[in-house]
Amino acid sequence: MGKTFFEELNNENVTGVAYKNVSLKKTVLSYFANVGNATIADLCKELNLSAPKVTALLADLIQDGLIKDYGKVESTGGRKPNLYGLVPDSAFFIGVDIKQNHINIGLSDLQKNLIKVSEKIPYKLDNNKESLESLCTLINDFITELTIPREKLLGIGINLTGRINYATGYSYSFFYFNEEPLSKIIESKIGIRVFLENDSKSMAYGEFSAGVVNHEKNVLFLNLDHGIGLGILVNGQLYYGKSGYSGEFGHIPLFNNEIICQCGKKGCLETEASGWALTRMFKERLLEGSSSILTKNKNSADIKMEDIINAANNDDVLAIELIAKIGENLGRGIALLINLFNPELVILGGSLAATEEYIRLPIKSAINKYSLSLVNQDTILKMSKLGERAGLIGACLLVRNRLLSLS
Hints:
Elements: H1 5-9, H2 16-35, H3 40-47, H4 51-63, E1 67-72, E2 82-86, E3 92-98, E4 102-109, E5 114-122, H5 129-144, E6 153-160, E7 164-165, E8 170-171, H6 182-190, E9 194-198, H7 199-210, E10 219-224, E11 228-234, E12 237-238, H8 270-273, H9 275-287, H10 305-312, H11 317-341, E13 345-349, H12 357-370, H13 373-376, E14 380-383, H14 390-404
Parallel strand pairs: 3-6, 6-9, 10-13, 13-14
Antiparallel strand pairs: 1-2, 3-4, 4-5, 7-8, 10-11, 11-12
Protein name: Sugar kinase of the NBD/HSP70 family, may contain an N-terminal HTH domain
GO molecular function: kinase activity
InterPro entries: ATPase_NBD, ROK, ROK_cs, WH-like_DNA-bd_sf, WH_DNA-bd_sf
């Protein structure tokens, strides 16, 4: 009995005709994944392959349980052709989106449907081995609760903040304890192939693939959270730069201040326009005598970014005022991006985007003030549609695409 597609896919020694067949099967799967169901004639035309070759490839993929014959379709004349497409539950992918104080884990099928989601699982992201062990335990717990066969779980996509080299699996901002790539370390503890990704890039891809993006191909996604991240899509593809570290928007030295950023430098955009900057400003204003609904139930030292966001959405004047200030500073930075990239669309996502118009309006005002009018007139500004699930969906889709080499 011959090897299945997945066995061939994971065989690093495959060469010659076998390698070519694996590549062609990836191409067929990619077509179904991106376009939808199709006839043999459709595949022949789009993939420039002969009918006998397409028929043979489909037969192998049907035998492996990845493709299904969905029966006859209407025809303008002659014999009705058969329609083929993916079997959604033939393969599954796990996405793990790591936040500062919780994680979200989701399961998607081959046709990118989210099957199961566990959100806001308590977790503290710290740069130590205990935090890494806790992460692996939570992922294993999620897998244990699944009712699908483990062999159908083909890969896990994990989003982390900071500097990630997705191609090598290294994280240089968190859990850089060993010479071995972090992806391999987690893989050894879970037993399923792992792919790392920067959280902002994954959120950008999720929003691009299943969110607010319509036909735009050149898109900037702003992840407005404790820090500031940027996902860049050029002609529909994530832009990484040489080592995968593109998008460090929060560390543009835009301000002449003496505030030390978390990167160790002074004057970064994050020092005046991020979630941690908002929290610092809020506490400073309380010490100066300003009032807020938050001080009724909390000590000022215990106030977190999430508390300020909730306060703003409950009409707290101080919270609204400072979010507007953060928005104006962000807009100044985004104006710089618009002048550089001339994008079709800028998406505001992440925790601070939950304040909606409180942050969008000052951002829009600052963009108009600081960017070239001829450039910003071509740029649409939208709020994230997927919200908290943007990174989860992006992680699932990216691991699917990378594992099967789908584009």
